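Give me the fold.
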Amino acid sequence: MTSSANNFGAQMAIIGPTQVGGVLSVTLFGCLACQTYLYFARFTSDGLALKITVSAISLLQLGQLVCIISILWTMTVSTYGDPSRLNVLPLAADLTIILSGFTAFIVQSFYAFRLWKLTRNIFFPILCEIISVVAQTSMLILSARAIYMTDLTTFIDSQIVLISLGWLARGACDFITTAGIAWTLKKKRVSDFSDMVTTVDRLIYWTLETALITSLLSVAMITLFIVKRQNFVWFGVWLIYPNVVGNSLLASSVAK
């Protein structure tokens, strides 16, 4: 009886955060689409690698948009009046884990490369890339296991270590790249030319504005997961996260 009650509670609890997170994610995708258009319209002379990076993020988030629409349809229409069917998440939710993981991995690799370009020191960029690979591997294993889940509550309880490891790694990578880029720019701030100082200050501001938010979101997600795992607010944050990191990269590219 207790197990059935817990399962029903989880099935009801996940609906609200998923709907809110899904709607916010769709809204952020609109921002991503606008920034993608601005980027390709303004910076036609950029290198092929950066253009491929922006295109990959946009396509991955387009795929996630389709998955989120499918998830929202399942939770608001298909299972209306019968939340017991949410005892196992729809396949679209499993695909969302994969797509969001690849989006985060590409963005973190981009910032690690930018850190190397600024410092010409390979230690921290390689460290960030290793941490990002750990996070991505955790997400891929998690998504593979999620496909075969038979009970939502049991599955989450059995994957606490894997989920926590993935998000701790994401947060650590974001923090290291943000701090490294900001610190390097601060050291380059010393100049006799006021215009140069102003430009560097603007770059530091853009770095903190765009990259720091992804670190804070990772911390918020892992905190919510550990402290209040039962209310599934962390899952709503999970749905938002990839669009936030995608928008952060596009914002830094469009504003340059």
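The radius of gyration is 20 Å.
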